[in-house]
């Protein structure tokens, strides 16, 4: 989620709960896993021409998770070309927890409230796959979206315990001085966002770049172990020496 702040581009980030077993306490982008029901909402989606079932599920899951986790909903009333207003969003707030707890499906929510997902507002930005040696693995797609100005972004208090609108530069500074913990994939994507000065520039950059799937690997060298990614992925670095224990 992006917006234009007083000093330029800002992104919405949340702090993960310390009891979550992956990236606990880390500053991350809102998101989560695709549910089986996310594959059943093709008829409720805008901007999906030519998209596969998997691509639609990824976009639907991204919009749903953003709503559950930070309260922003990229959706329209059926027949409207405008995103739901902040006032309308307040009437939908009570769906966040039932959706997260899987007490209601995404399709049922959309049907009951006469809504369509604004998949056309998402821009594919990156694709990262957890290294094979990790005990818990993820296949993660990142999307950019401009947050509606009248939607109030608020963390859910469950998976995430704090939230902030922050410039890429300030996020990176906070990671460097210990204010925040930002894991490697998030950090590189924040760095890439930092090359853009505003939302329009960031969306254009994402449209023009070729998304290369990133599956990091480790190389053992004389001076230590290096975490490596494909140079063609377009990040500022393609390798980094890993810190030694202790």
Low-confidence stretches: 17-24
CATH architectural group: Alpha-Beta Complex
> What's the N-to-C terminus distance?
36 Å
Q: State the name of the first-level CATH class.
A: Alpha Beta
Give the integer mean of the pLDDT values. 91
Major pleated sheet: 4 strands, antiparallel
Radius of gyration: 18 Å
CATH superfamily: Nucleoside Triphosphate Pyrophosphohydrolase
Q: How many β-strands, per DSSP?
A: 12
Beta-strand fraction estimate = 15-25%
Please provide a written account of the structure.
The protein is of the alpha+beta class and 246 residues long. The chain has a single domain, classed as Nucleoside Triphosphate Pyrophosphohydrolase (Alpha-Beta Complex). Helices cover 26% and strands 23% of the residues. It has helices at 53-70, 86-90, 96-100, 106-112, 168-177, 184-193, 199-208, and strands spanning 2-5, 8-16, 27-28, 45-46, 75-77, 115-118, 123-129, 139-144, 160-166, 217-221, 224-228, 239-241. Strands 1, 2, 3 and 9 form a four-stranded antiparallel beta sheet that branches. Strands 4-6-5 form a three-stranded mixed beta sheet. Strand 10 and strand 11 (224-228) form a beta hairpin. It is globular. Residues 17-24 have low confidence and may be disordered.
């Amino acid at each position: 989620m992006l917006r234009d702040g007083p000093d330029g581009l800002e992104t919405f980030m949340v702090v993960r709960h310390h009891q979550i077993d992956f990236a606990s306490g880390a500053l991350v982008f809102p998101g989560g896993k695709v549910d089986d029901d996310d594959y059943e909402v093709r008829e409720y989606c805008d901007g999906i021409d030519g998209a596969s079932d998997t691509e639609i599920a990824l976009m639907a899951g991204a919009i749903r998770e953003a709503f559950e986790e930070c309260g922003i909903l990229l959706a329209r009333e059926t027949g409207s070309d405008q995103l739901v207003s902040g006032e309308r969003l307040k009437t939908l707030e009570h769906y966040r927890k039932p959706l997260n707890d899987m007490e209601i499906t995404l399709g049922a929510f959309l049907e009951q409230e006469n809504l369509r997902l604004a998949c056309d507002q998402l821009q594919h930005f990156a694709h990262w796959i957890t290294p094979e040696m990790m005990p818990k693995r993820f296949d993660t797609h990142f999307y950019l979206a401009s947050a509606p100005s009248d939607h109030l972004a608020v963390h859910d208090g469950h998976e995430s315990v704090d939230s902030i609108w922050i410039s890429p530069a300030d996020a990176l500074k906070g990671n460097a001085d210990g204010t925040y913990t930002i894991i490697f994939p998030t950090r590189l994507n924040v760095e890439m966002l930092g090359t853009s000065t505003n939302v329009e520039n960031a969306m254009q950059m994402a449209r023009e770049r070729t998304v290369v799937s990133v599956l990091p690997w480790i190389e053992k060298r004389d001076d230590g172990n290096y975490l490596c990614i494909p140079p063609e992925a377009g990040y500022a670095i393609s390798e980094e020496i890993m810190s030694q224990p202790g």
